[in-house]
Amino acid sequence: MAMTREEVFAKVQETLVEALGVDDDEVTPDATLTGDLGAESIDFLDIVFRLEKTFNIKIPRGELFPDNILNDPDFVKDGKVSANGLKELKARMPHADFTDFEKDPDINKMPDLFKVQTIVNYIETKVAG
Amino acid sequence: MRWFWIDRFEQFEPGRRAVAVKCCTLAEEHLHDHMPSWPVMPNCLILEGMAQTGGILVGQMRNFTEKVILAKVTKASFLRHVRPGDRILHEAVVESISEAGASIRGTVTCDGQTVAEISLMFSHIDQNLGGMEFPEENFVFHEGFKLLLDSFNIRDDAADGDASGSQQK
Question: ipTM of the assembly?
Fold first, then answer.
């Protein structure tokens, strides 16, 4: 039987509490992983490992948290993600909400794309499939 | 020269688990000051033993081609002291591994008692560059280190799980 959105969120919340040592009430859908929950780069790998175990799924590298976008000069110009970069990001992160980022695609704001809700959206696509 | 803290492997099951021994001795100079009149192994060195046990276990899974770096202490609980004369066992079990890194779950015991529970994450740093470049040479598992590893009998093909070679346990 498919998991409900609430069940997915509850397990994601539990995973982030364990991985990041935060309180469960801090893990709200809009909380950003780095800004609000203090995640560092290695934590992203920890989160991926834990999600794979919790949901019994395989998360291919770069699928949940895309990498190498910022290293491509075609995707970044003058400190901002270019139109091509934005197109690529959207294609690779259909689980992310770009509403705010599109208004000012400053690369320093890119971590704000990684919210708790982003993970929940991604997991829903995996457990549904 | 690489700093070895563990003494030898008792068991080595490639890709799965490893058990390494560390004998605590009063000949270790730091114990003279830690603590004065009551020598006890610092917990950070118990953690170092697990990092070496787990790091070598993870390194062997990629035939020591990756630069395996301790990246995160996921858990570290210490339940009793380790004192000169104690022989402790570091057991590391691989939980997850990917191109980017690995995680292990570890237990440290002495005379059948749990000393510590330690879980760690390792990064394959060449796969996590983040804009940084590291020397091409593998400074973690260099040739001198690999030669020393031969004495542990765990390179490449120690698939029978017994890393003690001809030594008696």
Answer: 0.86
